[in-house]
Amino acid sequence: MVNYIWRLVTLGRKNNAVEIQKALKEEFGISLSDSTVRRVLKKAGFIAFVKPQKPLLRSQNIVKRLQWAKSHQHWTVDDWKRVIFSDGTKVNCFASDGKAYAWKLPHEELNSLL
């Protein structure tokens, strides 16, 4: 079981204890609490870390945004006064606003995991 958990984390297929817990239930029919999974990960040498948030932009969206910005860079203040800015809508794409945790080995860098 420990080897299976190790593989799930090192291969990057599962990031947190709840995902690993569900995988163990589906694969082996084993019911473990998420705290037990965390304890096993800690004993195996893994370190929990908070995943940094990054914008959900694909490369083509980045290019489109840059093109839009370049086409509007010469606008005057009067031009911008005719624009209505709205930031009233809040959308969560994947999860709540809470922190997302993952596991890594002490020698691993975050860039290779994200």
UniProtKB/TrEMBL annotation:
<dbReference type="InterPro" id="IPR036397">
    <property type="entry name" value="RNaseH_sf"/>
</dbReference>
<dbReference type="GO" id="GO:0015074">
    <property type="term" value="P:DNA integration"/>
</dbReference>
<protein>
    <recommendedName>
        <fullName>Transposase Tc1-like domain-containing protein</fullName>
    </recommendedName>
</protein>
<dbReference type="Pfam" id="PF01498">
    <property type="entry name" value="HTH_Tnp_Tc3_2"/>
</dbReference>
<dbReference type="InterPro" id="IPR002492">
    <property type="entry name" value="Transposase_Tc1-like"/>
</dbReference>
<feature type="domain" description="Transposase Tc1-like">
    <location>
        <begin position="4"/>
        <end position="74"/>
    </location>
</feature>
<dbReference type="GO" id="GO:0006313">
    <property type="term" value="P:DNA transposition"/>
</dbReference>
<dbReference type="GO" id="GO:0003677">
    <property type="term" value="F:DNA binding"/>
</dbReference>
